[in-house]
Automatic annotation (TrEMBL):
It comes from the Bacteria. Residues 1-19 form the signal peptide. InterPro entries: DUF306_Meta_HslJ, HslJ-like_sf, Hsp_HslJ-like. Residues 36-144 form the DUF306 domain. The keyword Zinc-finger does not apply. Pfam families: META (PF03724). This is META domain-containing protein. The keyword Signal applies. Keywords: Signal.
Length: 151
């Protein structure tokens, strides 16, 4: 009888602890997703290299995540980009991006580096006004700052 009581208490305690620890994780993921979506994110870094850009400039590399349609759009510094995205926890996957094909002599190198980094994205971290897009190893490939809300 005592063994059954102890086993019941242990199982109940384990289930309570597991249930309580998984709840904050789900809540945190929902909060992160809410911080990610429906903002304009202006790029500040590709890898460890900082790019100082006017966030209001029309050619500043940027990205926006639309929560209603699960679509992503932005610019690579020259061309407009668009596609879809799927978020699962802190992982993010983009569909192949479609884009315009303009020639911008002064920003072609930046555009190329940005698109290469974007193709490596597998995860994200968001903290208030900062977004980090990560590769599959957790390395930061792109970093953004949110300064302008969607129009």
């Amino acid at each position: 009888m005592l063994k059954k009581l102890i086993a019941t208490v242990l199982i109940s305690s384990t289930l309570a602890v597991v249930g309580c620890t998984s709840m904050p994780s789900t809540i945190q993921q929902e909060q992160n997703l809410a911080l990610l979506q429906n903002k304009i994110w202006v790029m500040t870094h590709i890898g460890a290299i900082e790019y100082k850009m006017d966030p209001h400039a029309p050619n500043a590399p940027s990205i926006q995540f639309n929560s209603n349609e699960m679509r992503v759009n932005g610019t690579d510094g020259c061309n407009r980009l668009m596609g879809t995205y799927v978020v699962k926890g802190n992982q993010i996957n983009f569909s192949p991006m479609a884009g315009t094909k303009m020639m911008c002599m002064e920003t072609m190198e930046l555009s190329s580096k940005y698109n290469e980094a974007l193709s490596q994205v597998a995860g994200y971290q968001v903290y208030g006004q900062t977004l980090k897009l990560l590769d599959r190893h957790g390395n930061v490939v792109l970093k953004y700052r949110s300064t302008v809300q969607p129009r």
